[in-house]
Known about the structure:
Layout: H1 5-24, H2 28-33, H3 36-50, E1 58-65, E2 70-77, E3 93-99, H4 108-125, E4 130-138, E5 141-142, H5 144-148, E6 154-156, H6 160-168, E7 185-192, E8 199-201, H7 204-209, H8 215-220, H9 231-247
Parallel strand pairs: 3-4, 4-7
Antiparallel strand pairs: 1-2, 2-3, 5-6, 7-8
Helix pairs in contact: 1-3
Amino acid sequence: MPTDMNLLIKTLKDMKDMYENAIRKGEYTKLIRSKKLIGMLHEFAIKELQKIFPQQWIHADKPVYGYPKKKEQDILIQPPQNSEKSLSTGPIATINVRSQLSSIDKNYDTLFERLFAEALNLHNRFPHLVSGYLYLLPKIGYDEEAARNKIIRFSERYDIEKYISSFLSITNRQDPNDVPWKHEQVALLIVDFEQDPPVVMDNMRIFLREGLVSENFANLFSFDPLSIRNFFDKIHKITMERYYLLLMK
């Protein structure tokens, strides 16, 4: 079942309204430090997963002991343990959700290092685990300095080609023997928040038309592997393929 784009747009609209109202009220910093804003995207992801996985398999904000560290996962897919058969099933899939609405280029190194480190940590201990990542970025970032002064301004243009090519390099992990630092699926959700309601941008031709990528880049790369439109279905398909015999018993 493809992603409910109407629900996604509504969620993004609610996020935009909350974020911009916080700026107007001088509560920008307080909101950023809370989990309220990203929590809306978490809830959207859970609703999408509930359409394809049994509800009792879905857990929010649960720690997983990877290797070498324990890390809380935003969404964990784990079937109930079957004590009658002494069956103990570890986590079979995780989905983490992140966003960066300002100071985007400044945080690139930290963002990208965290992305592949989290996959590596999980796959070191659970090579069959299906790792999904949903990352929200704006078409043009909010001006952080203006926000501190209660002004809504879009001013940060960043290297979108760098982000697309980087995210493509760590998605589409093929099987448990593939490199552990990749995720099975990554969705790069690039959104035009200047429009109301916000607009999801997930086609390379659109990026080219907007002057965000070069024609050479658009000819070399496809955005399809990073689109959110089939992200949740792909997570479900890979999970069922890897665990079918176990889960269908």
